[in-house]
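Sample A.
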Amino acid sequence: MHFIRFTIVISLSLLFCACSTTLASDVVPVSHFKADRYLGQWYEIARIENRFEKGMTQVTANYSKREDGGIKVVNKGYKADKQKWKVANGKAYFVDGEDKGHLKVSFFGPIYGPYVVFELDDNYQYSFVTNHNKKYLWLLSRTPTIPNHVKSNFMNKINAMDFDTEDLIWVDQSPN
């Protein structure tokens, strides 16, 4: 009986932690966010390696409108070790209103995680994204390559925010 109660408490604790929308003090979502301009295809240029993308190349994210007001998310990447494409379908919803780059995203039913756009250029060509506690990090671009000034800006910003960049990788976008 105690084991069952313990399991339920741990499961609920993990669920609530995964759904947290409280942001680290230096993670500030962009304001004046325009979802319509953010929609479309993005190439993953850099990321802090994570278990669900480990070893993936040619990673893209495609965002489109959902009929319920949310955003459809389709992430795609190539797993060279298995010589196959991996696709993950998800959905995202705004947390603090549609004018802020703070969303919650789910790929697994009712479990949501934070998606925070903390840097975005005026032309919606480059986006810096993290979660609530800076465990995850992505540099996204509308093109498979970026100019050096964007890379420098990204590195300066994440270093100033004390991201743990030990596992930062630059994603190979060249076709196999």
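Sample B.
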Amino acid sequence: MNLPTKERTFYFDHKDEYGERREGNFTVKCRLTMRERQVMELYKSRIVGGHTAPTDALTGISVMVATLNTHITEAPEWWKQSDSGLDLEDETIVVDLFNQLTTEQLAWRDELTQYAIDKTKAAKEALDGETSSGNGPVETK
């Protein structure tokens, strides 16, 4: 019983509003270190560009692009050439990719939860086995 790996790979296939197809495998981190989270926040701030009152649209795009930039470890060439989405003309690609990342993170968390449940169950069964065989803790009065 091993912890689920914090990276996941998925196939992404999207036809944009101009009829251009974008596809390929993405590998993403489902869990970030504190340093990676800090880098993500700094990148998001850089995209916003120091605006004191950014619009909701600017904030949303900044969050998605910064999140994808930080979580993606391997990507198809078209993604790399688009400067991690910043040079794409169709924002639905970024939105769909962000949604897929979220789906992968939720699946990873489900695996992590199941790991914890299985580990707890195994520990309980081991403890129950010890107490029923007489090798468990001695009860004192």
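B remarks: Residues 11 and 25 are 4 Å apart (CA to CA). Helices lie at 34-48, 56-71, 77-81, 91-132.
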